[in-house]
Amino acid sequence: MRFIHFVACALAFHTPLYAQEERAERPAEIPVAAFAGGNQLNSAKLSQNGTRFAFVVVEGGKRVLAVHDSDTLEPLLAIDLGPRDGFNWFDWAGDDRILISNRMKLSSFRYGESRLHAFDIPTRQLHFIGFEEQGWEGDDVLHTDPNGEYVILSLSERGGVPPAVWRFPLDGSGASSAVLVQKPEKDVYEWFADDAGVVRLGMSWTSKADIKIYYRSGPDDKFRRVTKVKGGDDEALDAWDVMGIYAGRDTGYAMVDAPEGRKVLREIDYSTGKLGPIVYENPRWGIDQAIFRKGEGPIGVSYTDDEPRTVWLDKEMASVQSQLDAALPGSRVRVIDRAGMKRMLVRQAGDADPGALYVFTPSRMNLELFANLRPHVDEKLLSKTEAHEIVARDGTRMRAFLTLPRGRGRERLPMIIMPHGGPYGVRDTMVYDDWTQLLANRGYAVLRPNYRGSGGYGEAFERLGDGQIGRAMQDDIDDAYDWAVAQGFADPDRVCLFGASYGGYAAMWGTLRNPERYRCGASFAGVVDWEDLLAYDSQYLARGRVRKRWYKDVWTPRITGDDKFDLASISVADQIDRLKRPLFVAHGTRDLRVPFDQYEQLAEAADAAGKDIEMLELTDNHYLSDGSEEVRLLEGLLAFLKEHNPPD
Fold first, then answer.
1. Beta strands at 490-500 and 413-417: parallel, antiparallel or unpaired
2. Adjacency order of strands within the sheet including 263-269
3. What sign does the dihedral 39-94-141-286 (CA atoms) show?
4. Alpha-carbon distance 427 to 387, whole Å?
5. 253-286: per-residue pLDDT in tens?
6. pLDDT tens digits for range 299-318
7. Alpha carbons 638 and 648: distance in angstroms, whole number
8. Maximum distance among all alpha carbons in the chain?
9. SS3 per-residue string spanning 553-581
10. What's the CA gap between 616 and 607, in Å, rounded?
């Protein structure tokens, strides 16, 4: 085996926690700001041949795309992406051009239309890709030329009409040089191209949200209807989650449900719609993602048990993974982007280690540290996380993750139970979590239960959450409290709830519903009125015929359960007169997922009921894009907890 050669860059070299001695004493306090702001290096992507890489940086009120040289690791340029709320995504087109998608602002709090631009690195010029008059979706890229010369783009003349497909050059010549490659056809609203850029598959929707699939085997063939998928038939639709069409063949790949509800990777024949052999399945866990090599097919898959894992189907990549694991022992090592075998971006991390980003050059077996993901967090001061299984009152088994503060023992600790957001299809894992580590650093035990409805544990477990918001889902959180007390980890008189989004709702509702358990509650961006949120979601989530059908037939029943159930009985604003414990509530004025008027409604309801709530208004969105606003949130939270549930 060839050995990987390490090179440390000018930044401080990363020392994983596994190499450090455990300390019995209580750790020094890590500054709040060290935990705030998105881990910007998570967005890092390599150019086509790996000569450069880029990632998004948030600076004040805007986002910047930082571009670096992969050989020297030195910065090359910074591209202003505009307002932080208006950026969608970026991707490389060759080595010299970058595609950038932005959202256009339609009103004070709402973004709608997307637009595509190309940035040319040699000339430092930004060019618009599209037409002056076009539909809402301007960034539906079907294919990007590997050399960065052009893109294949699906565009409508105006919102609500079927799109055509155009070939746009990226040299700045503009719409006048665009070439029509596929005219609108058969009410097709979604087109797919193969790896050579040939449009091969189209989908249309009926008024009943049925989906018709049209396909052709090559550029000289005519489109023909292959099948029609009934609206709401999720199992059949899974097969048409197009994961790659390859020139010269009809077979591709699909992630579909096994009989037990686990996702497996199978071949599919697009010309007939029939599923073929299973490419990969895990006997216990569904796969999260398939990893493809352009022009070939799947070379790996990822799944999550208590933590994310990668299985390489390709022997060469499996060998690379083994070498990287040996070079960074005791930590979790993942290849997050590849430029073939020329260069790779590698992330190393642990449950008590925020991790670092490396640049790996296989030809030289050279692994260079680029930067620590949390450069101001001292890993020696962090706390390990344990996985536990909790049995709920009805016998349902759920996984939970417990982080104990260093230097405080394991018994009768002040605890924060932190339910995750979502709620459906989302879950916590053993991976490093900023808020968990901040709270542990301040002396709190943190328990994160994956209540029913959480993803990753099979379809049956997720379906247990249907119609159980504020009901059995909340029972699971209470049962996690009972488990922590029975095991001796938590002091029963010193447990608080804290969460964000749905977790924020669960924290508020648990504080109102079960004051005998919880000493206080804290929420960021939590839902306070479910009826109002559903009304908002009818616009936010239900744009287009398919989404409207999904909103009506899937999302609404999942929230309400029984049609006769009164959502006001589990809504915080409607039940605020039950409040007996301290409550901290923060919300962003730019939140589009849980609108800011939910926060305003709670303030009005609390005032009318004569209830005191500590309120914090943030100039930010649902995802805390502004690190300085996240600092305000966390400092407010810690001050609230110190007053109402002090760690000492």
1. parallel
2. 251-257, 263-269, 274-280
3. negative
4. 13
5. 999 988 777 889 999 999 999 999 999 999 889 8
6. 999 999 999 999 999 999 99
7. 13
8. 75
9. HHHHHHHHCCCCCCHHHHCCCCCHHHCCC
10. 15
CA–CA–CA angle 203, 207, 209 (5° rounding): 55
CA 475, 481, 485, 489 dihedral sign is positive
Is residue 286 exposed (0-12), middle (13-18) or buried (19+ Cβ within 10 Å)? buried
Answer positive or negative: Cα dihedral of 313, 319, 325, 328.
negative
pLDDT for res 645: 97
**Containing H/E element for 129?**
strand 125-129
Which residues are bridge partners to 153 per DSSP?
141, 166
Instruction: Write out the E strands in 145-239.
Output: 150-155, 164-169, 179-182, 188-193, 199-205, 211-215, 224-229
Which of the 8 DSSP states describes residue 34?
G
List residues bridging with 97 in a β-sheet: 93, 120
The pLDDT tens digits of the residues spanning 211-239 come to: 899 999 999 999 999 999 887 677 777 78
The mean predicted confidence, pLDDT, of the chain is 90
Helix (H) or strand (E) holding 617: strand 614-618
Peptide bond into 515 cis (omega under 30): no
User: Do 63 and 81 form a contact (C-beta atoms < 8 A)?
Assistant: yes
- DSSP per position, 351-403: TTEEEEEEEEEGGGTEEEEEEESSTT--GGG---EEEEEEE-TTS-EEEEEEE
